[in-house]
Backbone:
């Protein structure tokens, strides 16, 4: 492309002048053709062809000029074919045009007449084509020479000697055609490469741009070779490919080598590539160090992969020619030859080789591991990858087996998989770890052995602990939560039907997550605890020791492990979470009828409540959790249960706020009345709890009156009334209709008091409660009789 506004305008002017000259002389040529005047036609055709001698146009502009001349030459060729019009034999015509004054018009005319000469069958096509290709050497200017030889190729392509062709025939005719195209290709390539060495260095970039515009002229020869009938595999292997590669390697030009290697791969059949793989690959290490070999090799492997996918019957051929081994060896030689190849290029080559292996030989895991091992070898001795493009390629490399097999278990069998991950920096390691977890979630993969779990957690250790010393506090909070929640979901995907193996899995996970530091443990400990409790419930009625195992999978042993695991949360500190987990474990121990363990776990929960839970809201939540869990547990004997319920009611009455005290105390009433056949039913202690909650509610009203001048809403009284009704229905003899009646009257009185704050929600709650009593009265039967004494 011509730089500078003035130069561009000059070029446009020169092009316009050239086109005008061609049109002017073509006009007189047409007049001569119409009058069948051969000499005048030759004279004016030589004149318009002289316009192609210009050196002032860029390839793009020269092409426009050439196409004008080409159109006129086609008309002239038609005239040459009609001997009765010009009265000159084709042999004499072939001699006549050689008298043109300038070499360029002379050669264009010779090519045109030569095309007609071959069609006349008066001479061997081989001799004419050889003569023409030799004479074209007279033009050594790169652009003029390339377009001239392109014209020769264009007019002769339908006359090339082919097997059974109308012009020749015979066994050697195909070879003659191939020889002509190869010779023309070689000369065009030399002209094309010569452009690289012309002009001052300051316009080198411009020259390279112009060269790239001419690449198709050279490449068309290779396309023509691929179209010649009779060029079978044997001829391609023995003649065509070696000769073409010889030109490619010997030209020692970066642009030419890249384009022509790519052209070879694109124009010749996949079958030929497969059968000549060794020869083709042998040329790659001989290319210039600056050639983008990775792109060309990638396209070759992609074509072969597509070939294998579209034609499964050829897969044995891939094994027979050892395609993978040859590709792997070629990549190794290329990397050795190009010592300055950036690491991203190296990894890209291995990504392509791995993709080829997965598509063509998916069953060969040894091939996959070989590629990963070769990548490790190239990365070894180098610092952690920091090039974002290189790390992206490594992620692609590691993701490929996951996407192909849809099974992390397959990837876990690859010994070099974790070794590749070792070369990633911390952030990319996390990205890859998330890819692995997402693959497991997407495919619902169950990792079922402790060995595989160990390898898996080694792979994702970037999420489990700090790899580069970066403090957790410096990490993005949202990203950190997403990562840890992913690890938690992963833990739930680990399962084995065999209890012994499942326990090994749990121990393996515990050993890994304990290295995560205090900020990660609240995310990773709970799923591990619940996974272990799932195993406990599976072993619910098993006890004692199992011989032959270091740590037998019995509930006792699992609870000991859980106790140690939950204790680590105290160093976070996260006492509320630890308390919840202790209660879950206590309930599971109860289901297994392990009273001492359940009692010990409850004790741990109470100790945490006493010593670690200081926030008043957290205390309220914790005491209700304790009460709810204790109510569901039925394994305790009288003494242990009394101790624990006493503690629970005591802590309930010591909460900071009176309303919280009241609700906790009346919740404790359920500890003394469990609605199942074997549950405790101590009506006296139930009424004591309810009366105590009434006193606390009354005290809360008085305190509100003293501090704010008005009592608060009577919500607490309505809630207690509902507890009275519940136990009354359940048949507690200590809850009488009179007591309910007195409580209803008390609430009505309080609501009518001037000092009581009105609350629509409380009013609606109380009204709903009264409607329920009325409903029970109307129901009739035993329950109706019980409620008859309550007046509302």
Residues:
């Amino acid at each position: 492309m011509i730089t500078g506004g003035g130069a561009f305008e000059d070029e446009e002017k020169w092009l316009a002048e050239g086109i005008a000259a061609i049109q002017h002389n073509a006009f007189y040529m047409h007049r001569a053709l119409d009058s069948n005047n051969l000499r005048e036609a030759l004279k004016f055709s030589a004149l318009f062809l002289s316009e192609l001698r210009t050196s002032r146009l860029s390839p793009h502009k020269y092409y426009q000029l050439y196409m004008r001349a080409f159109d006129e030459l086609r008309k002239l060729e038609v005239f040459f074919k009609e001997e009765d019009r010009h009265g000159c034999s084709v042999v004499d015509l072939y001699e006549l045009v050689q008298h043109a004054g300038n070499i360029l018009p002379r050669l264009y005319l010779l090519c045109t007449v030569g095309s007609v000469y071959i069609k006349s069958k008066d001479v061997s096509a081989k001799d004419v084509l050889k003569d023409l290709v030799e004479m074209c050497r007279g033009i050594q200017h790169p652009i003029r020479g390339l377009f001239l030889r392109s014209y020769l190729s264009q007019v002769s392509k339908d006359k090339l000697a082919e097997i059974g062709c109308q012009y020749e025939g015979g066994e050697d005719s195909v070879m003659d055609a191939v020889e002509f195209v190869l010779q023309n290709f070689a000369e065009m390539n030399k002209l094309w490469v010569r452009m690289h060495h012309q002009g001052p260095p300051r316009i080198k970039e411009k020259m390279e741009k112009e060269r790239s515009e001419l690449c198709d002229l050279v490449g068309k020869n290779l396309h023509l070779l691929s179209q010649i009938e009779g060029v079978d595999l044997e001829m391609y292997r023995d003649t065509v490919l070696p000769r073409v590669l010889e030109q490619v390697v010997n030209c020692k030009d970066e642009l030419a080598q890249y384009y022509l290697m790519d052209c070879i791969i694109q124009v010749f059949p996949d079958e030929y590539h497969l059968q000549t793989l060794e020869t083709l690959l042998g040329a790659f290490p001989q290319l210039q160090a600056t050639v983008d070999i990775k792109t060309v090799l990638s396209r070759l492997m992609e074509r072969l992969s597509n070939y294998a996918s579209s034609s499964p019957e050829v897969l044995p051929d891939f094994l027979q020619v050892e395609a993978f081994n040859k590709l792997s060896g070629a990549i190794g030689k290329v990397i050795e030859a190009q010592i300055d190849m950036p690491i991203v290029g190296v990894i890209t080559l291995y990504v392509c080789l791995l993709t080829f292996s997965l598509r063509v030989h998916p069953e060969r895991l040894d091939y996959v591991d070989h590629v990963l091992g070769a990548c490790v070898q190239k990365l070894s001795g180098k610092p952690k990858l920091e090039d974002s493009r290189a790390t992206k390629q490594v992620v692609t490399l590691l993701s490929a087996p996951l996407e192909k097999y849809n099974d992390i278990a397959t990837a876990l069998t690859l010994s070099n998989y974790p070794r590749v991950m070792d070369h990633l920096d911390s952030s990319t390691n996390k990205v890859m770890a998330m890819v692995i977890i997402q693959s497991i979630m997407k495919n619902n993969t169950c990792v079922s052995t402790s060995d595989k779990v160990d390898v898996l957690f080694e792979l994702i250790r970037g999420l489990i602990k700090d790899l580069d010393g970066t403090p957790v506090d410096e990490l993005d909070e949202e990203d950190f939560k997403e990562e840890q929640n992913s690890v938690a979901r992963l833990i739930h995907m680990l399962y084995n039907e065999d209890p012994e193996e499942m326990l090994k899995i749990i121990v393996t996970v515990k050993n890994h997550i304990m290295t995560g530091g205090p900020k990660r443990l609240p995310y990773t400990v709970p799923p591990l605890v619940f996974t272990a409790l799932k195993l406990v419930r599976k072993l619910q009625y098993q006890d004692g020791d199992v011989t032959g195992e270091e740590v037998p999978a019995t509930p006792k042993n699992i609870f000991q492990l859980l106790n140690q695991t939950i204790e680590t949360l105290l160093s976070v500190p996260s006492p509320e979470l630890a308390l919840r987990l202790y209660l879950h474990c206590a309930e599971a121990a109860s289901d297994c009828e392990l009273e001492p363990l359940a009692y010990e776990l409850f004790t741990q929960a109470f100790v945490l409540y006493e010593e670690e839970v200081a926030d008043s809201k957290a205390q309220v939540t914790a005491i209700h959790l304790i009460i709810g869990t204790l109510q569901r547990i039925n394994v305790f004997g009288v003494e242990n249960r009394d101790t624990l319920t006493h503690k629970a009611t005591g802590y309930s009455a010591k909460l900071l706020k009176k309303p919280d005290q009241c609700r906790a105390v009346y919740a404790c009433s359920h500890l003394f009345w469990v609605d199942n056949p074997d549950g405790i039913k101590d009506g006296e202690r139930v009424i004591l709890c309810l009366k105590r909650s009434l006193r606390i509610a009354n005290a809360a009203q008085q305190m509100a009156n003293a501090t704010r001048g008005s009592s608060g809403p009577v919500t607490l009284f309505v809630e207690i009334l509902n507890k009275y009704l519940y136990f009354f229905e359940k048949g507690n003899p200590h809850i009488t209709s009179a007591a309910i009646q007195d409580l209803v009257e008390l609430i009505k009185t309080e609501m009518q008091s001037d000092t009581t704050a009105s609350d629509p929600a409380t009013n609606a709650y109380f009204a709903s409660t009264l409607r329920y009593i009325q409903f029970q009265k109307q129901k009739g039967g035993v329950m109706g009789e019980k409620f008859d004494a309550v007046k509302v």
